[in-house]
Amino acid sequence: MITEKTLSSLPAGVNGPLYDIRKIKNGILHFGVGNFFRAHEAFYVDAILKDDPEWGIVGVGLTGSERSRKKAETFTSQDCLYSLTATAPSGEHSTRIIGCLRDYLLAPADPEAVLKHLVDPEIRIVSMTITEGGYNMDEKTGEFDLNDEDVKTDLQNPDRPETVFGYVVEGLRRRREAGLPAFTVMSCDNLRHNGNVARKAFLGYARARDADLARWIEENATFPNSMVDRITPTVTPDIHEKLNRESGLNDDLPVIAEDFHQWVMEDRFANGRPPLEKAGVQFVEDVTPYEQVKIRMLNASHIMLCFPGVLVACDTVAEAVQDADLRGNVETFLNEDVMPALRAPEGLSLEEYRDSVLHRFSNAAMGDQTLRIAGDGCSKIQVFWTDTVRKALESKRDIARIAFGMAAYLEMLRGVNEKGDHYTPNEPTFKDAQWKLAKSDDFVAALGLPAFDAWRDLDTTALDQKVIEIRKIIREKGVKAALPVR
Ligand code: CS2
């Protein structure tokens, strides 16, 4: 266990916080304290606390599962401290203790405690990493889904919320009533225009609750867009053990990430912000070209690599990218399907970006998992592939790679690889009906999964036929035989 006391006697090579953690005040409340948040936003905020101690973070977990309870207990027993190990593709690594998380609350255990923080005037930013699919948007209508059961429950009991929408809007209502300024709602999820999506979601919920309140939020809160980037694997028991062995710590909550990190953000804060530029955050007028390049190149090729990667029994991304056939397919996808339709931000070469992405994927020491990347594929396909697929369909370009990716995704959902080993695909947004489609052998019906909704208004006859054809080849001859010819 790491605690405040441990900080005075850290093992050689482990860096501690550069500030006195007791002097930190909380300025940010964050929903969704997952590994990515701990390696990204928390890492950046940690780096500026020596300059401005007012931006400590209160973390909030939203689910009441046994696992979440355990996590909350561990955070508390470690004084919310944890180690972050940054690993380069060369294998070089360094470890530091992150101290910016100053409190951790499990929302279902005490909703009032969370609301109390939300009306604390010192909290000036509410940030979140609630995953791509967490914004409860109906992909068909592009609107906030008011038919969601959890949202309905919150709208019926608005002062005892359970969803992030319920909490944030109730918090803002209480601030308005108390004559306090609003806060900035800062989405750190990997979405195109994450701020705009968050705005739509929170205002969608607020409007259903109280139109006046929604107007006040619209006028007083801000929702900056940002591009976030740092590959952060799941910490398996093996990785956990290895991290502690190498650092000499006895951390119950270690995190590992690549050494690369990037955060590009719009400077639109309603109520002040930390001096994040001192930690390397780029503040720009328009994040669109940055997020387009990141999502359509890095994330899109990550899933293009890992859906088939899982099927050919590559456990790690590094193994998958070393497979010449899978890598070749991703390269062709980027060169032929993605890059010609992309506008690069000034000063960035798409060719160099492509090479750096593939180099980052080759980071074997990090041990990032193909199953992690393939997880939540239904939301990821919609976010990462839609622009590229629409362009290809509209301009009647070659759809071979896209069809292969879709077929590999559908085959991956069956939960058995080519060696006959079983695994559990993770699709957090699937209900029984979707699982039924995913597990059935009705190839036509499977194309009705929501993953492919975002281009259903176009003529997809040829694409759909190709997906079915490729699925048959994968079943009969294997993934490699089904790869598009280069
Ligand atoms: C990955 C991302 O989950 C995924 O599909 O592509 O988690 C990726 O590691 C991050 O976006 C990197 O910034």
Describe the secondary structure blueprint for this structure:
Blueprint: E1 14-15, E2 26-31, H1 35-39, H2 41-48, E3 56-61, H3 66-77, E4 82-87, E5 93-98, E6 101-106, H4 111-118, E7 125-128, E8 137-138, E9 143-144, H5 149-156, H6 164-177, E10 184-187, H7 194-209, H8 211-220, E11 226-229, H9 237-247, E12 255-258, E13 262-266, E14 282-284, H10 288-311, H11 317-322, H12 324-338, H13 350-361, H14 370-374, H15 377-394, H16 400-412, H17 432-439, H18 443-446, H19 461-477, H20 479-482
Parallel strand pairs: 1-5, 2-3, 2-7, 3-6, 4-12, 7-10, 13-14
Antiparallel strand pairs: 4-5, 8-9, 11-13
- Specify the CATH homologous superfamily of the largest domain: NAD(P)-binding Rossmann-like Domain
Quaternary structure classification:
single chain
- Main CATH class of the largest domain: Alpha Beta
Mean pLDDT: 97
The percent range for strand residues is 5-15%
How does the overall form come out from the CA principal axes?
Answer: globular
Bound molecules: D-mannonic acid
Radius of gyration from the CA trace? 22 Å
Major sheet details: 5 strands, parallel
Count of distinct structural domains: 2
Beginning-to-end CA distance, first to last residue: 52 Å
Strands of the widest sheet, in order across it, are 6-3-2-7-10
Proportion of residues in helical segments: 40-55%
By helix and strand content, what is the structural category? alpha/beta
The strand count comes to 14
Which architecture name of the largest domain does CATH use?
A: 3-Layer(aba) Sandwich
Low-confidence blocks of residues: none
CATH topological fold name of the largest domain: Rossmann fold
Provide a count of the helices: 20
